[in-house]
Amino acid sequence: MTGDRRTQPEAGAFEREWRRRFERFARDATTEHHISGWSEAGLRRRIRAFGELLTPVPLEPGSRVLDLGSGAGTYVRLLGSQGYRTIGVDYSIPSLQRSIEADPGRTGRYLCGDAYSLPFSDESFELVVMIGIFQAMGEPARALTEARRVLRRGGHLVLEILNANEILIRARTILDRTKHNAGVRTYGRSQMRRLIRAARLRPLRDVPVFLPPRNLPGLEAWMDHPVPRFLLRTVPGFADLGAPSFLLLALREDDAPR
Questions:
Q1: What is the pTM of this model?
Q2: Is-contact 66 128, C-beta < 8 A?
């Protein structure tokens, strides 16, 4: 079931389950990627896609950045080290504690908060980052509206979705429904673009995140070879069927694009 079709009680139960998971990850994890529930390759390749997506974005030194759902603080430290004033917000106290421990130089700030009611005034940030949270959200449209509120005109939003059309994710979704598991929320790119537009933001571009199977880590080097990399990204259908997730870039304009 996709992000915009659950009732309020169902959405609340779903989010409470995921909050417990994230808190457990933060308490029990021994590595940074496990705090957010990723594999090591999954985190590494998301960071690479994030950098690729942000390359053309004109962020000035000292720009204010919000990492919403900051988890282990990976992107807070990354952006803070590049000279941006970065704040990480997460609802998981254990995750925030792990973030602070991993950032002794205080490259960023960390706050406990809710994506649906952010403790910031309107138009506070030049960039809002939402990575690894939409699969655990019951009301994505509401979160996008709040993200837009705190984003300045001309500012950018980066978000990640788990790809509903990827073959293994599609199979796992069917299995979760059969077993009545909470599972994860997944989205197609076109569906997410509609949600972005409904929040009065303009979708600009997206980058697929391809991951090697966990039992075949050697495939990662092959995937990064120029020829396979080109084919994976350009052959119609490859990205939609083979990329577990996408990072999307959107823009806040003065007028709502339709």
A1: 0.88
A2: yes
